Amino acid sequence: MASVSLALGVLAFPVSAPARVFAQRPASPRPVYGITGEDPVTADNRGRALSHPQASCGPDNPCYLPEPNPAPVEGLPVDSHTADTYERPTAPGSAATGVISAVDIASAQVGADEDRLYFRINLADVDERTRGLPYVYGFELDYDDEDAGDLLVRVTDPAGNLGTRFGVGGVAAFWNANSNVFGATAHLPDGPGGTIDGYEVLAFDQGANHVKDNPGGDRAVVARVAPDRAASVELAVARPFLEAVTTYDPRIDLGGPFTKLALRPNASTRMIDPAAFTLHDRFGRQESGSPYPFLRVAPESPTCPASDAGLTQAAREALDSGTDADTGIANPCYPNRALAEYDNAYYTVGTTDPTPTPGPPGGDQQAQRTGRGGTRWGLVLAVGVALASAVTLALALRRPDRS
Questions:
Q1: DSSP structure class, residue 291
Q2: What is the average pLDDT score of the chain?
Q3: What are phi and psi for residue 245, nearest 5 degrees?
């Protein structure tokens, strides 16, 4: 069973780059990773029989349940409707007798060089039927320190569309140009019926770069199945492209390179509307359900609420206190419903400084973890840039890619 560590940290980027790097077509991406964050793995858990008023699993047809919520070591959400964090690589409810390993995130990695940022999702295993990765994989990115995601990058069926060579087949990037991926409240559920305003601009679509001046060219975002592991997918994003779609926020100066990067990996069996990607603003608890048959804390009501509107913080925390142990407190929102076969990760603020340089396999920096009680949506990875080189680098990064 994978540990429930959620790792991140400060990533120091090169602050000076030879002009030739930006004057010619960049070399083919060669990913390098400096930070690794682990996610709970449902596929490693033992199936169990259970009895629940709404859905039960017998000894001959056991159910797979996620680790208890919150994670016992870090105290961070494993599956929480309030935090919009989900660990559901299974079919709904009592049908959760098998895990879809190809959407069960085991860990994610992040790195960078002078040309690109690199993101890698390591799944529990390949798909049992296709022996590949036939689903949808991506990252939410935020790099202006204001909690709203800026960019959603993803690839569909990387095994079928791309194989182990970087390309643009099935690759897309969606921009949150108005800096609002939330409903009525920034960090609380507003569904069902909440105002949906997510990643509303298609910025890159399989080689078609829709951003002004074509930053990064027709390969601004590329992906592949990792050649060293069939159950891992990699994405590479050109730094000029990221610079061009940095969302304006009046509280900070975005005249130079971005100074922080927050991210969250995700995997799902089906496409999720990028304009409604914050799922707890789209669905209520009755629609999303829960993968936990039991709660640690008794809820205020024996029924699952249609909406979180009017719920106290204590009421939300009780409903989010799901566990795989039979506490005698039945979860009124069990079984899992609309959000089946979806996994994302809750990452939070870290403080270490792993420079992204090549190293031996398994040698990536594991950063310190700090919890924020579900109030921030992502892992924050601070990117240090020397002030003396900021203006020069910013100008260099804005030059169009000649690819």
A1: S
A2: 77
A3: -110, 20
The domain of 86 spans 11-48+70-285+342-397
Residue 77 inside a domain? The answer is: yes
Q: Compute the distance between CA of residue 117 and CA of residue 99 in angstroms, rounded to an integer.
A: 31
Q: Sign of torsion, CA 357 363 367 373?
A: positive
Alpha-carbon distances, residue 31 vs 8, 34, 38, 240 (angstroms): 18, 10, 19, 17
Cis amide prior to 192 (ω within 30 degrees): yes
Radius of gyration for the chain, computed over Cα atoms and rounded to the nearest angstrom: 21
Tens digit of pLDDT for each residue in 116-158?
989 999 999 999 999 999 999 999 987 765 667 889 999 999 9
Residue pair 295/329 in contact (Cβ under 8 Å)? The answer is yes
Residue 9 pLDDT > 50:
no
**Through-space distance between the first and last CA atoms of the chain, rounded to whole angstroms:** 43
Is residue 34 within 8 A of residue 357, CB to CB? The reply is yes
Q: Is residue 201 part of a domain?
A: yes
Query: Would the pLDDT of 395 be above 60?
Result: no
Q: How far is CA 88 from the centre of its chain?
A: 13
Number of domains composing the chain: 1
Residue 29 included in any domain: yes
| Tokens 């719920």 sit on residue | 311
pLDDT (tens digit per residue) in 169-202:
999 999 988 877 877 787 788 888 766 678 989 9
CA distance 242 to 224: 19
pLDDT tens per residue across span 366-375: 433 323 322 2
